[in-house]
Structure of Ubiquinone/menaquinone biosynthesis C-methyltransferase UbiE:
Amino acid sequence: MDKDSITHFGFENVKAGEKAERVAGVFHSVAAKYDIMNDLMSGGVHRLWKRFTIEAAAPRTGQQILDIAGGTGDLTKQFSQRVGPTGHVVLADINSSMLNVGRDKLLNSGIAHNITYTQADAQFLPFEDNSFDCITIAFGLRNVTDKDIALQSMLRVLKPGGRLLVLEFSKPQSQALETLYDQYSFKLLPLMGKVIANDAESYRYLAESIRKHPDQETLKGMMETAGFVNTSFTNMTGGVVALHKGFKA
Ligand SMILES: C[S@@+](CC[C@H](N)C(=O)[O-])C[C@H]1O[C@@H](n2cnc3c(N)ncnc32)[C@H](O)[C@@H]1O
């Protein structure tokens, strides 16, 4: 994507070259309160979505895992325990504030031996070809400026036979749920952001970026266009969230 071409930042149209900076502003702003806001906004359900993701990823002892847009490290923590001392997890995120919160959290819970922290953009992953058995990106892809380039970059660093799991907000599967969800995310979310984190704007971006993200079938098609095979998705919470999976041939 050319840096002058137009993309979106929530409902706002911005130049592609400006989006990363705007997204960075959001995550620098929310980093300190990210975990508590996640629990409050989802009623703790994000933990179930993430647990499901780990089970679907099925990490095995000794495997190499990349958790892109890993933020405060929820998935990395569980992967680290599952791959054991002979395995390795890279927690990669573009944002230094999110990475710092994640690293402190994992160190404080005594998890350190098999994790590396890397500041990296999902579009331009700084790893060798064919490096990882499994890659995850949880609630990260919708923030990336060029999702197609990011998917190609993930495919490049996956080992043949390796799997990618994309956990992301998606399209609710019933009109009633969509209406309820709209009310919640456009009214209540920014209010919670204002009261708890003194930051209504970031939480408005969250709601808007979810609406701009491709729906289930579109994202599956994008993964196939990037070169992933055996792609599938599973809806959770009525399609509020979907877990996409694909493999490198
Ligand atoms: C909503 S948080 C998700 C964090 C974590 N994966 C989780 O599920 O709790 C989104 C993360 O994506 C990161 N991010 C945004 N754009 C990115 C990019 N282009 N490359 C890598 N990470 C990115 C942000 O810095 C942020 O930490």
